[in-house]
Amino acid sequence: MYTIKKLAQKVALPVSTIRYYERVGLLVPQRGENHYRYFTEADVLKIKYIKVMKYIGFTIEEIKRLLQLDETPLEAACIAEMDGLLGHKEKAIHEKIKQLTLVLDLMTSMKPQLMATNDEQQRPKINQKIATIYTEISQKGE
Predict the structure, then answer these.
(1) Which helix (H) or strand (E) element contains residue 41?
(2) Which segments constitute the HTH merR-type domain (predicted)?
(3) Residue 116 contacts by C-beta under 8 Å, 6 or more apart in sequence?
(4) Domain of 52: which CATH number?
(5) Is the pLDDT of residue 141 over 70?
(6) What is the number of domains present in the chain?
(7) Which residue in 55, 102, 110, 117 has a CA-CA distance of 20 to 30 Å to 88?
(8) The domain containing residue 13 runs over which residues?
(9) Does some domain include residue 66?
(10) 25-59: per-residue pLDDT in tens?
(11) Does residue 118 carry a pLDDT above 60?
(12) CA–CA distances in Å: residue 127 to residues 77, 101, 106, 119, 121
């Protein structure tokens, strides 16, 4: 069992974040007779799951729903909803990878120009790549 302070140290999060997760219903700590919060290894795993899902881009509400679905007996509706949430995020990640690949290609193209003092032959190619990336991200509303 972990106190909130020990849990925060273990998962490298501020105590305030753990309290927030409790407030929004992502974590439900046990309470001792002294009314202190106590967390288990299951809570440590849940926080790791939350951190990974946040990194991927899930909102707190989406994470909460995924956790609820994970604790629900597997039924067709539950599986379909989880598949929809995960499938939507998977599509968004693939799109982000595509955009980041374009940006990486742009950066690679810019290196020769940075090395040369006046390489005007590269400028139109770079401008075209910037325009392509701009169009890509503008269509996504970023």
Answers:
(1) helix 41-56
(2) 1-69
(3) 122
(4) 1.10.1660.10
(5) no
(6) 2
(7) 102
(8) 4-57
(9) no
(10) 999 999 988 888 999 999 999 999 999 999 888 99
(11) no
(12) 48, 16, 9, 13, 11
Asked whether residue 52 falls in the same domain as residue 96, the answer is: no
DSSP for residue 54: H
Which of 57, 75, 95 marks a domain boundary? Answer: 57
Q: Would you state the structure tokens that stand for residue 138, as one six-digit string?
A: 């503008």
Q: For residues 133 and 103, is the Cβ–Cβ distance under 8 A?
A: yes
52 assigned to some structural domain: yes
56 exposure class (CB count in 10 Å sphere: 0-12, 13-18, 19+) = middle
- Is 37 part of a structural domain of the chain? yes
Are 50 and 63 in contact, with CB atoms under 8 Å apart? Answer: yes
Angstrom CA distances, 63 to 69, 96, 105, stand at: 10, 20, 33
Residue 62 forms part of a structural domain: no
* Rg of the chain (C-alpha set): 23
